[in-house]
Amino acid sequence: MDRTAAWQLVCQYTQSESLRRHMLAVEAAMRAYARKFGEDEEKWGIVGLLHDFDYERWPQPPDHPLQGARILSELGYPEDVIYAIKSHADYLPDCPRRSLLDKTFYACDELAGFIMAVALVRPQRLEGLEAQSVIKKLKQKSFAASVNRQDIYRGAEDLNVPLPEHIDFVIQALRPHAEVLGLTPHV
Predict the structure, then answer these.
(1) 142 in a domain, yes or no?
(2) What are the C-alpha distances in Å from 40 to residues 4, 15, 28, 74, 100?
(3) What integer pLDDT is reported at residue 1 of this predicted model?
(4) This prediction's pTM
(5) What angle do CA 107, 108, 109 make, to 5 degrees?
(6) 138: pLDDT confidence band, cut at 50, 70 and 90?
(7) How much is the CA Rg of the chain, to the nearest whole Å?
(8) Does residue 185 fall inside a structural domain?
(9) What's the CATH code of the domain at 68?
(10) How many domains does the chain fold into?
């Protein structure tokens, strides 16, 4: 697997800068967790990077992620990468999250997006952002209303990591990538 080829695939299928940034954020979180767990950082990062590459063209379930899975299969991506991507869709009953890869990816997907939303409304963006601020925003149903809070809670639970610890870990994973994520502080 080649990260450059994966990024080219993202760019070929995804025009939205915000969706590209979301995939980059999930990639960063997945790479950080791979390092923590002693797993294959390249593989885990590519799962995060590619997980929504098909969403703009096929946003309706189950087309997303099944159309992407078909494309990845045709391109020779490993089955466990394809399965992990499919497992983030709760509406695919034949793809339960089984492996640590599947569970970590699910735990990072919605949370990374939510953390980015929280950071975007702060002048300091990711700098100084702490779990308690994110948790406070999670309780505010009108904020980033399209984010499924249950996915965030279930992801941390399935990963067997306390939610505040998981949030802090993902924030730390995103900070070095603030510029590419569009999250540099406003002066």
Answers:
(1) yes
(2) 17, 28, 13, 22, 12
(3) 84
(4) 0.97
(5) 100
(6) very high
(7) 15
(8) no
(9) 1.10.3210
(10) 1
109, 88 contact by CB (below 8 A): yes
Query: From residue 184, how far is each of 17, 87, 116, 128, 178 by CA, in Å?
Result: 16, 32, 11, 12, 5
Question: 31-88 pLDDT, tens per residue?
Answer: 999 999 999 999 999 999 999 999 999 999 999 999 999 999 999 999 999 999 999 9
Residue with tokens 């939610």: 163
Of the candidates 32, 35, 95, the one whose C-alpha atom is nearest the C-alpha of residue 61 is 95
Is 143 inside any structural domain? yes
Nearest Cα to Cα of residue 149 among 137, 133, 162, 161: 137
Answer yes or no: is 182 within a domain. Answer: no
Rounded distance between C-alpha atoms, residue 185 and residue 173, angstroms: 17
